[in-house]
Write a structure and sequence with these properties.
The protein has about 130 residues and is an alpha/beta fold. It has one domain: Hypothetical Protein Ychn, Chain: A. The chain has five helices and five strands. It has a five-stranded parallel sheet, with helices on both faces. α1 packs parallel to α3. This is Sulfur reduction protein DsrE. InterPro entries: DsrEFH-like, Sulphur_relay_DsrE/F-like. It holds the Pfam family DsrE.
Length: about 130
């Protein structure tokens, strides 16, 4: 409707491949927010950046043991729904990664940008 503002959700992903059982939830929730016509942005920092390494999502099972869905399914759904993926610049170095090592992201942010996004968001959720 005219005049309505779009609600902004910011998901800060700090956990990576070391906790596969935690990996799908932020993508699932961000996808849900986007499908509710909200602006959904995910920022990957600390070891969360490891989830974006090329080839990881296709191999990372949500349940550590057994045959379960792989993370790539949740990433594809988020992308299709219009979720933005941003990576924290210092976390690239922390994980010995470069942008070329990652799947497609929508940008790189630092501390100032992340703080500004959190300040402007209606909802901030951290994983």
């Amino acid at each position: 409707m005219a005049g309505e503002t779009v609600k902004k959700y910011l998901y800060i992903v700090t956990t990576g491949v070391e906790a596969p059982e935690r990996s799908a939830s932020p993508f699932f929730l961000a996808t849900t927010a986007a499908l509710m016509e909200a602006e959904a942005t995910m920022v990957f920092t600390i070891t969360g950046t490891s989830l974006l390494k090329k080839g990881v999502a296709e191999q990372l099972h949500i349940k550590p043991r057994g045959e379960s869905a792989v993370l790539a399914t949740f990433i594809a759904q988020a992308r299709e729904a219009g979720v933005r993926f941003l990576v924290c610049a210092p976390s690239l170095d922390l994980n010995d990664l470069t942008l070329e090592d990652l799947i497609e992201v929508d940008g790189v942010v630092g501390g100032t940008a992340l703080n500004q996004m959190a300040d402007e968001a209606d909802v901030v959720i951290t994983f």
